[in-house]
Amino acid sequence: MYHGGIYAEEIAGKAYDTRLLTRFARYVAPYRTAITAVLVTVPLVAACRLAQPWIIKLAIDGHITTGRLAGLEGIALAFLAVLLSESLLAFLQIYLLQSVGQRVMADMRNELYRHVMHLPVSWFDRVPTGSAVTRLTSDVEVLGEMFASGIITIVGDVMLLVGIISVMLWMNLKLSLVTFSVLPLLLYVAWAFRRRMRQSFREVRARLGRLNAFLAESIGGISIIQAFNRERDEERRFSDLNASYRDANMPVIFWDASLYAIVEALSSIAVALIIWYGGGEIIRGALTFGVLVAFIQYIEKFFTPIRDLSAKYSVMQGAMAALERIFALLDTPADKPVHQAPVPAFAEIDRPPGETFGQTPPLIEFRNVSFAYREGDNALEEFSLVVRRGERIALVGESGGGKTTITRLLTRLYEIDRGSILIDGIDVRNMRGSDLRRRIGIVLQDPCLFAGSIEFNICLGDEEARLRVRTAAAAVGADRFIERLPQGYGEEVRERGNNLSVGEKQLISFARAVAFDPEVLVLDEATASVDSASEQMIQEGIRGLMQGRTSLVIAHRLSTIQDADRIVVVHRGRKSEEGTHQELMEAKGLYYRLHQLQFNGL
Ligand SMILES: Nc1ncnc2c1ncn2[C@@H]1O[C@H](COP(=O)(O)OP(=O)(O)OP(=O)(O)O)[C@@H](O)[C@H]1O
Question: What's the whole-model pTM score?
Fold first, then answer.
């Protein structure tokens, strides 16, 4: 009797919204045959339920009280047939409804996942991961609940209620009015209690959210918790949150149980009224015994759907809220559009006098690029950089200077606000995201590994890259450790690569970049310190990685970039210096100071 469940959050809105349901109908349309079959069963089930008390009335008035045995078996058989038909039809209805529900949910999850995969990275900055996961899981689940106990069953309940009221009125007007005298109270109780429960549900939902967030964080950070002996403390905090969640559930249980009890009591009162009034009528000869029994049965069939209607209404409200959120997510524009309006091409850009590149444009050019993650807080300001084919460029500077931002803009994970970024003289906004990213390989600071084999982690399922897995691993020197593993390239990587060392994870991510054979390589050097043997292994890997490629390296250890073609110092979103190691050391500027700091601790 715990209707509405944890999905009853944010229930305030409509229980029926034509716009949302029309759009939702598109997902149900492929299963229209099953839905039509369900729609046929709905009135039939209602008719079976309606017929049972009527058949009992016929048996009592026509045979039992008159002592006429002939024909009684026929009536008993008819009763049995109606009961069996009802069971069979109800089975069909529930089975079909729920299986369509599961199929629709699976389709929606697929569509949502496909969509989320193409959303711009900036969207994930705004929306917490947990919220995106909720859309794909519990929000979709609510729609399943709508199938199981919403929409169509409501239609069946309403049909049954209208049927019962009509039959009662037709059988005996006065007796019906006596029965219906408890109705206003029943309706009031059902709605008032349901409203209280909704308020309590909201609290339950909020506290469950807090509990889940805490769990995710503490399980994710278990090694830190254990390393700092925080287990006891964490247990206490969890226990408090758990108790608060338990307590929030108490009012819900109270109102639910009360509603159940009160509806039962009211239905008993209605039966008592019928026995009292109907009994008198029978004695006076104004009513038959069969009608009285039928009335008592109808009352039982009448109260249950009324009690459940309010719960079903909550399910519908929850479903409308879920649909609203799901469609809002689907309407978030995916991947950045390829700009149709002319973005200035290489030849059209105003250049300062004296600057020429001849006929061939450089491979990469940042031209006066400005960008802000948050309005008014520029992470990059008027940044310009030219990278020629085959060059090895190092980006250095203090933390938070904007180095990573430069690489994100180049791969169009974020859109620039002003200026332009050109590749081979073509503005990246005129290129398709997928084409652009095929040309640029990226190695992130934190090597991201997925559950699957080492081979899968190198090629990520791409067929072309799969052919290059072994040569790529060999190029970065990852083959040595992979071949020592019991399963070699088939060795399973556990969650986030927990069974591999930091250096090994790095090498796999290098091999991945090589396997995709990009023209340009962007490498965000890891800041994590590894022992000197691993360090040497990684440096060798990096050399293999950059072999014959144009590269842009974000360097945290200046020792690794002294032979770069050019070093660019990024400071507070601007380019503050540019030159070779030798030139910058001689200039005695920011680079020189960073160098002194790292090597001499000055
Ligand atoms: N997703 C984001 N949303 C909002 N602000 C961000 C985001 N990513 C970075 N920033 C901010 O932008 C600025 C530049 O960050 P960026 O990551 O480019 O620096 P960085 O030079 O790469 O630093 P590090 O060397 O520590 O990696 C910082 O002030 C940072 O706080």
Answer: 0.72
